[in-house]
Amino acid sequence: MSVADPLTALRALVLRDVVLQDALGEVENFAVFAERTAEAARARGAAIDAETVRSLLYTTFQPPLIDGFTPGPGWLPAEVTEVDGRAAITWLRFGRRRLVEAFYDDSLVRRRFLPFNRLFGVRTALSDLEAWTAALPALRPAGLIFHMSRCGSTLTAQMLAASPANVVLSEAAPLNAVTRRGDLDDGAKVALLRAMVAALGQARNGESRLFLKLDCWHSRDLPLFRRAFPDTPWVFLYREPIEVMVSQTRRRGVQMVPSLVPPATFGVDLADGVPNDDYCARVLAAVCEAAVRHYPIGGGRLVNYRQLPEALFTEILPHFGVTPSDVEASAMRAAAIRDAKAPEQAFTPDGQDKRQAATPALRAICERRLDTVYRRLEAMRAAGE
């Protein structure tokens, strides 16, 4: 019997049985997964033993994705790719697993490692997404978080995620795949964005609220998000430019790497081909200028990093129309004492350290590229208070 035969048989067995998916989907140990899968197969009259399952798991090649299967609730979009000239979604099964990692990509890494998702990766046409999500009891976003980057947005998202009542999507690449599509008119893009948010923001554990923390460049897409979710309030988080710039000199974010995020995403060019500190400042300026430009469309609130973490309770949640319970607030405050990107570590304020580390050259770049827009944000924030 070829390798493909038991794999096909196993997939046919598991994908038609939601109860079996629930039983196997959370198993982390490959050997345990093989034993339980074989046991379930025998109970259903299929001649698939544990050694066969193990061989499928440990084979050197990644099993091909499954086409033609419609994923059920609990499956989330992992990525959008082009297949034979058509856009397709790859799905992973999350079951009831909450999104508690700092970034959606971190959640995907954990789920991809599971033996279930190794054997049962599913692919569907992007064009089918709207019909699929129409039957979901989807959550509407309660709040959108736009940000400058390195300014407390991950802290805010992690504090929100500390409440089991909240689904928090943090910089989910499938959303960016929708906003970047150039083959759709505005109406089609709005509909697809709503569908993708519904797919990603499923209430899989009885959650009642959904929050989206977007990528920094999405401030330039604010009108699109407002059209898709006109009743959803939003915030823009920002920080003193020199502190953000020092952070970027120490460790570049993906937005500062032109091969990962093209300069055109920010409406800037890279004339000399070198993504130096000046380029980073121009990227940050484009993000902030977009927030200033689109603020008049309504629904927004500006929050400076120095107001956090208390601003979650005094500014952000009230703006989102959310009153957390005492238990929720306690959990959120507990999350704030941990480093948002490394929760195993305690948070240590670093603003003064970063200001002291700034070189005269870096300060000159900030003054030239960022000071004006930062002062504008501060003036707008003060006027709104």
Please give a structural write-up.
Helices cover 47% and strands 13% of the residues. It is built from 18 helices and 9 strands. Helix 8 (153-161) crosses helix 15 (326-336) and helix 12 (241-250) packs across helix 16 (351-357). The mean pLDDT is 92.
Helix content: 40-55%
Low-pLDDT ranges: none
How big a fraction of the residues is strand? 5-15%
**Could you name the CATH topology of the domain at 137-165 and 208-384?**
Rossmann fold
How can the largest sheet be summarized? Answer: 5 strands, parallel
Keywords, please?
4-stranded mixed sheet; globular; 9 strands; 385 residues; Rossmann fold; alpha/beta; 18 helices
What's this, in brief?
The protein has helices at residues 4-15, 18-24, 30-43, 50-58, 104-113, 115-119, 129-133, 153-161, 173-179, 186-200, 222-228, 241-250, 277-294, 311-320, 326-336, 351-357, 360-369, 371-384; strands spanning 66-67, 75-83, 86-93, 122-125, 141-147, 166-170, 209-213, 234-238, 300-304.
Please render the helix and strand layout as text:
Blueprint: H1 4-15, H2 18-24, H3 30-43, H4 50-58, E1 66-67, E2 75-83, E3 86-93, H5 104-113, H6 115-119, E4 122-125, H7 129-133, E5 141-147, H8 153-161, E6 166-170, H9 173-179, H10 186-200, E7 209-213, H11 222-228, E8 234-238, H12 241-250, H13 277-294, E9 300-304, H14 311-320, H15 326-336, H16 351-357, H17 360-369, H18 371-384
Parallel strand pairs: 1-4, 5-7, 5-8, 6-7, 8-9
Antiparallel strand pairs: 2-3, 3-4
